[in-house]
Amino acid sequence: MESFWNRVKTLLNTTSVVELSQILEVKRTTLSSWIHSDRRPPMAVLLRITELTGVDLHHLERGYAYDFEEEDEVADSRIHTKRSKLIELVNSLDEDELEIVSDFFHFCEKRIVKTQTPKKDVQPKD
Description:
By secondary structure, this protein is an all-alpha fold. It has helices at residues 4-11, 17-24, 28-36, 43-53, 57-62, 75-92, 95-116. The relative contact order is 0.09.
């Protein structure tokens, strides 16, 4: 399977770290460290990559050769796997990334509560 960073380079049609760092608007040294340690960038950079390429995060991570139908796990196992991967990801975040993810979860939680709260019928005043 092709590496994450090779997929990104191919999708953005670039071969140099300098050019890729300019496209992604990150420091060259930071990008180099991500590439050499095969570390994923912060969510903001991942979203920029998806914006620039039109490729969703799932295919960006696994490539187009990955087919959802090839998985033969049962639904409960998938949920457990997803939960484990999320926990692993959250545990690997630095302080700034964790703050962003925390804000995102808080935002989602507010939306869920807001959409689940029944709206009261407002009667027009005479």
